Amino acid sequence: MTKNTGIPYEKMIQHIYQQILTCEGLDTINVQHNIILKGKTTSHQIDVYWEFNLRGIVYRTVIQAKDWANKVPQGAMLTFKAVLDDLPSGTKGIFIAKNGFQRGAINIAKAHGISVYTFCSAVEENWSGPIPMIEVALRLRVPVCIRPQFHMPLDWARDNTRITGLMRDLDPRSLVTDNETGESWTINRLITELCDRCGTPPKEYTKEFHDAEIQPFGTEHRIKIQEFTGIFGYQTGYDEKFHIQVDQLVGYILRDATNGRIDIFDNNVTLLRNEAESNG
User: Fold this and answer.
1) Does one domain contain both 15 and 110?
2) Pick from 64, 111, 63, 125: nearest CA to 260
3) How many other C-beta atoms can be found within 10 angstroms of the C-beta atom of residue 90?
4) What are the residue boundaries of the Restriction endonuclease type IV Mrr domain, all occurrences included (predicted)?
5) Can you point out the beta strands (E) in 73-222?
6) Would the pTM of this model clear 0.70, i.e. be above it?
7) Which of 25, 170, 198, 275 is buried deepest, with most CB atoms within 10 A?
8) Per residue in 70-97, pLDDT tens?
9) Domain identity same for 213 and 119
10) Closest of 59, 35, 53 to residue 45, by C-alpha
């Protein structure tokens, strides 16, 4: 039984589980690599490990990561079970192998609650066939903003005629502030938000303010506004379909060896999708 890369493989497992835990909302947990745990009778070297405390109870998980060229045999699973038996009660075990497990090893894992996974590149896993392809549909959405206009309170405008002229040809970097909510936008950002709100097709929309003002870009003046009106939204520009080979998009696959469920990662080992359905 030969080893291919050793420690780099273990570090990849550490990296992917840090992402999976973060995706599951456990982003404060530190996933550790190559640590020594003291058992009931002896100390054990652990490839990957994490723990967390919940209401006074410590939950521990240890991972055995093997990039052996052959399938993990029954004897290796029994050895891992012995390590788990020597660690504090309730310690969860996960065995991850690059090239899978012999049937006897999987049977032992099932009998003793050990999770078993394979982790390898998409090409090595041959995911979804010899040259799996994904069809991608590209739809370009073009933002629409027609007749955008800020409206001032009439009484305020009458009392401040010397600065109301600044409302003509406003620079899109001018700052809009809603004093009631504390929110601020540049005009560009506000238009983008309203386009997102209106969606497709574009529609007339009025954003009302109870206490808001606009500061024309490059000035110190603040002008009261009570609403912003216009037609906002998106139009579909064009549709285009093209194909991508799976190995151009998916770099690595973590597969549950018992039920086939997978997590997929890109070529930089960044999590793309959590708990995806198996493709084969």
Assistant:
1) yes
2) 125
3) 10
4) 34-115
5) 92-97, 115-121, 133-151, 175-178, 184-186, 203-215
6) no
7) 198
8) 999 999 999 999 999 999 988 999 999 9
9) no
10) 35
